[in-house]
Specification:
The chain has about 450 residues and is of the alpha/beta class. It contains nine helices and 21 strands. The protein has a domain at about 5-280.
């Protein structure tokens, strides 16, 4: 049996093992969606290195291991179990998910404004299935790959955030995705949905964390529907177990004059990949998407960004930075497409990487595809080391080598972190980066090699 056949069997077996006890079995539309996705798992290409999208990222670490689909509730969790995972200084609505399942007793949703719905997708399948049927799959469509199809075939639970017309939340929404250490490795296929009606606004912060050094595969799909004049700040921090695998597919659909301000931070997992797919459906949309990733020994961190300008007068800014140390590997693949009718497009893509060691590696490929003639567009990438003159300057002021490195790295990352509007979470992310850099610069040794 060849490797492709083994990988196909891995996907087929995962669907079969996870199909029992799924919610919404009586909903015809959901059965049809799951059925089509299950068929797609059998027919969509299995990722391998000859495919452009997977040239630098192997799925061997996933398909070589057996993951059991996570389907059970976790009723024994207590507040103390999340003590180190919360941000007590941040006043926020809170949703907690453990291995993809909503934990209401640990969530904080009191005093939600009228016209706001938050909580479990699984619950909404029972209480409001018709509304979900109108939203589901609007952004995914034909763009799904086999991992998205796998997630869709095994829809079980996930977050739902819905704001009615004109609602502006007075404080952020903090969503904690915690993966619990179990006796056997699990796969979590959480399906998340954020819907912003006309003129609504919110700040949504997601943290992906774990207890212990647990082994699991987090296969997330998030659909975001931004209607006219709506505004969303969306921050995602992936800080998972260094034994874990994480794959997120984020699909964003923007209507007239909507604004999406996203910040993606990837600091954990052994194998991590995030795919952003942005589609402008009507004129006047604004998308600002920024990211920071770090990769050290035995880590691969991968970002793919695909922005489609199909209508006129929209703007997008994508700015991603990487800090690599030890034998860490990173991949950045960014693509902006400007269709022929998308005149007056303003789109810019940038990727910068700082290599702290000689053995670190990055594959970066920014792409710009323009079919219109009245646009402002640019793209670029840089890969470099710390400036020796800057190091010398700091050391001449009595600062040791490791501290000088750390200061320069924090300065490099500051542009991305400063884009986070919530001050308390910005400080939390900065502390996490400083802790990581304390290890990273120590690993480089006094010579920086």
């Amino acid at each position: 049996m060849n490797t492709a056949q083994e990988a196909r069997q891995w996907f087929t077996r995962t669907v079969q093992e996870g199909s029992d006890q799924l919610p919404g079995q009586t909903l015809e539309w959901l059965r049809n969606i799951r059925g089509s996705a299950g068929q797609a798992v059998e027919t969509l290409p299995v990722p391998f290195r000859m495919q452009e999208q997977w040239r630098y990222t192997s799925i061997a670490p996933l398909v070589s291991r057996h993951f059991t689909p996570s389907t059970h509730d976790f009723t024994g969790l207590q507040e103390i179990d999340l003590e180190d995972l919360q941000l007590p200084e941040m006043d926020a609505y809170r949703l907690v998910f453990a291995n993809g399942r909503f934990i209401p007793q640990l969530s904080g949703l009191s005093a939600l404004p009228e016209g706001v719905r938050m909580g479990s997708l699984r619950t909404a399948l029972s209480t409001d299935p018709e509304r979900l049927s109108a939203w589901f799959g609007q952004t995914v469509g034909q763009e799904q790959d086999i991992f998205t199809a796998l997630n869709t075939a095994l829809i079980n639970d996930g977050m739902l955030v819905y704001l009615e017309k004109g609602i502006r939340l007075d404080k952020p929404v903090h969503i904690i995705h915690v993966s619990l250490e179990l006796n056997e490795p699990v796969i979590v296929n959480a399906r998340n949905l954020i819907v912003m009606d006309e003129g609504s606004g919110a700040s949504v912060i997601e943290t992906f964390v774990s207890t212990g050094d647990s082994v699991y595969f987090n296969n997330q799909v998030t659909e975001i529907l931004l209607h006219a004049e709506s505004k969303l700040e969306h921050v995602r921090l992936q800080k998972e177990s260094r034994q874990a695998s994480h794959l997120s597919n984020v699909f964003i659909s923007q209507q007239q004059n909507s604004q999406y301000h996203g910040t993606a931070l990837a600091m954990g997992a052994a194998w991590g990949r995030t795919n952003y797919n942005v589609r402008f459906r009507q004129e006047g949309g604004v998308c600002n998407l920024h990211g920071l990733y770090t990769a050290g020994d035995q880590q691969l961190i991968d970002f793919h960004v695909d922005v489609q300008h199909a209508v006129p007068n929209c703007s997008s800014r994508e700015n991603f930075k990487g800090l690599l140390y030890g034998k860490g590997r990173a991949v950045f693949d960014g693509r902006i497409v400007v269709e022929k009718q998308a005149q007056k497009t303003d789109a810019h893509l940038s990727n910068s990487n700082l290599m702290l060691t000689r053995n670190a590696e990055v594959d970066t490929k920014p792409q710009l595809e323009i079919h219109a003639d009245d646009v402002k567009c640019s793209h670029g990438t840089t890969v470099g080391q710390l400036d020796a003159e800057h190091i010398f300057y700091l050391r001449s002021r009595g600062i040791d080598y490791a501290s000088a490195q750390k200061m320069l790295c924090l300065g490099f990352a500051e542009e991305i972190l400063d884009g986070i509007q919530q001050e308390s979470f910005r400080a939390y992310a900065s502390r996490g980066l400083q802790e990581l850099l304390s290890t990273a610069v120590h690993d480089t040794g006094s010579s920086g090699e």
